[in-house]
Specification:
Four Helix Bundle (Hemerythrin (Met), subunit A), single chain, mainly alpha, about 85% helix
Length: about 325
């Protein structure tokens, strides 16, 4: 009964979390889009278009969660072991939490983009293009989580052991919580960049490459999480023990905490630098050098967490 409960609960968890995050994100985007329409009637068409396009991208998180739910339900074995239920729980958490996070994070970019268009209606096309680019980068963790969920699905079989289920569950946890910090950091940076373009459209040529670089650096902890998640899944399952599973959970926790701190910190640093860049675009080179140095120091902490996680995962199963 517990195994069956975990199976159906995992399927419901994915779409429930994705739907909650998508609903909140769509609400934030729509509310602020309508507010910007009232502030600047002359830019109605562009503001409305940016709101609709942005909301379509926000919706993608819930769609990915729905597909993950269908993957869990379709082709499920008649006899579900406890290990299978745990593995599917890892799938549901990985996709559900990530989808909810990126939907809410992406909504703040749409919010600031619509306000930027209300300030600079003639510059709407470039602001919309900038919004779409940053939203696409923010949405990437949901794709990574879905890939991990698919890999877990291919490893599920009726007689899956308890330890094998915990192995898959820990791999799902890495992606579920490892994307939180980077998503928050990317959202904070991207919405600040949109605001800066609205305040000083002449700084767009400087803010655009600066944002691409910053968003890419903030994204790296998610890639580290994807790497560790896949490595956990490919450990020799025939030699698993409770101690081996414990090392997987510790590796996941180590990288998740490093990713959380690093992603938020870099997002804060790049946001402040972007505001200064909008105020004084002529000092672009100086702001870039200082920001790169700060990002390098912050990123090193995430790399240290990655090294520890790699050592824990690759040390070999303990029996």
């Amino acid at each position: 009964m517990i195994s069956s409960f975990l199976h159906y609960f995992s399927a419901g968890l994915s779409i429930t979390l994705g739907g909650i995050g998508g609903g909140i994100g769509l609400g934030i985007a729509a509310f602020n889009g309508i507010d910007s329409l009232l502030r600047q009637p002359t830019g109605n068409d562009s503001e409305f278009r940016s709101m609709i396009i942005g909301m379509a991208l926000i919706e993608s998180g819930a769609i990915i969660a729905l597909v993950a739910t269908l993957v869990i339900l379709i082709g499920a074995h008649r006899d579900i072991s406890l290990g299978t239920g745990l593995a599917e729980m890892g799938m549901g958490l990985a996709v559900g939490i990530t989808a909810a996070t990126i939907s809410i994070a992406s909504s703040f970019v749409v919010k600031e983009a619509t306000y930027a268009i209300s300030r600079q209606p003639p510059f709407a096309q470039k602001i919309i293009g900038f919004m779409l680019l940053t939203q696409s980068i923010i949405e990437a963790p949901a794709i990574f989580a879905f890939v991990v969920a698919l890999v877990i699905k291919t490893r599920i079989f009726p007689t899956m052991s308890f330890f094998e289920g915990l192995q898959a569950f820990s791999a799902g946890l890495v992606m579920a919580f490892g994307s939180l910090g980077p998503s928050i950091g990317q959202s904070r940076f991207a919405k600040t960049a949109c605001r800066c373009i609205g305040l000083n459209k002449s700084a767009h040529s400087k803010i655009f490459p600066f944002t691409l670089l910053g968003e890419a650096v903030i994204e790296t902890p998610v890639i580290f999480c994807l790497l560790i998640s896949l490595m956990i899944l490919h450990v020799n399952v025939s030699l698993l023990s409770i101690v081996s599973v414990i090392t997987f959970f510790i590796a996941a926790l180590t990288l998740v905490m490093g990713s959380l701190g690093g992603g938020i910190a870099i997002g804060k640093v790049t946001s402040i630098s972007c505001l200064q860049l909008a105020n004084d675009p002529s000092n672009y080179n100086m702001f870039m050098r200082v920001t790169l140095l700060a990002m390098a120091f912050i990123e090193s902490a995430v790399i240290y967490a990655l090294i520890v996680a790699l050592l824990l995962v690759t040390r070999g199963p303990i029996v």
